[in-house]
Design a protein that fits this description.
With 173 residues, the protein is an alpha/beta fold. Helices cover 42% and strands 20% of the residues. The chain has helices at 5-32, 43-47, 84-92, 106-119, 121-128, 148-151, 167-170; strands spanning 36-42, 57-64, 69-76, 135-142, 160-163. The longest helix is centred in the N-terminal third of the chain and has 28 residues, at 5-32.
């Protein structure tokens, strides 16, 4: 709230660069593990059509034809938060809800993306080249341990929350 428009723009671009670098890091790790991967795949490209709402992109799209698994991964490289207020603010970005200003938080955007991909499975199959019905998996991967790993336990059926160090165990093909 206190930042000038120029400072907000700089902070946003900095976060985008950090996020893209982390997505590439996650994709490289999954590639080493044998997954087919792409980063920052626009939903419109993935599904081959536009929508009334902007679903932005899938940070890391990973798939394995043998198991028909398709991982839809939201990657976040967040700063370490120390105070209760900072932790609370970080948790508020991952509730899966609309914010007071009417905008969707990070988790709700991911859930909306998952819903539209589930509604258009045929297009997902065509894009990744899997011959059987895919199993879409929803994942949030954080670079470092974050409070959301513990706070989102109640949403385990909708999203798997991991940090980067857990990739080898959570993404076994």
């Amino acid at each position: 709230e206190q930042l000038s428009p120029k400072m907000k723009s700089w902070a946003g671009k900095s976060a985008d660069r950090r996020g893209a670098a982390f997505s590439a890091e996650v994709a490289a790790k999954l590639g080493e593990m044998g997954w087919q991967v792409e980063t920052e795949v626009r939903v419109t490209k993935l599904l081959g059509r536009g929508f009334d709402m902007d679903y932005v992109d899938v940070d890391v799209l990973a798939w394995d034809a043998a198991s028909s698994r398709v991982l839809i991964i939201e990657c976040k490289d967040l700063h370490y938060r120390k105070t209760y207020g900072e932790i609370s603010e970080q948790l508020a970005d991952f509730r899966g809800e609309l914010r007071d200003d009417g905008k969707r938080d990070y988790l709700l955007r991911h859930f909306d993306r998952m819903n539209i991909l589930h509604q258009h499975l045929a297009e997902v199959v065509r894009y990744v080249g899997i011959s059987s019905q895919p199993i879409l998996e929803s994942h949030l991967v954080f670079k470092n341990p974050v409070p959301m790993q513990f706070a989102l336990k109640f949403m385990e059926e909708r999203v798997t929350v991991s940090n980067f160090d857990q990739l080898p165990t959570n993404f076994v093909r």
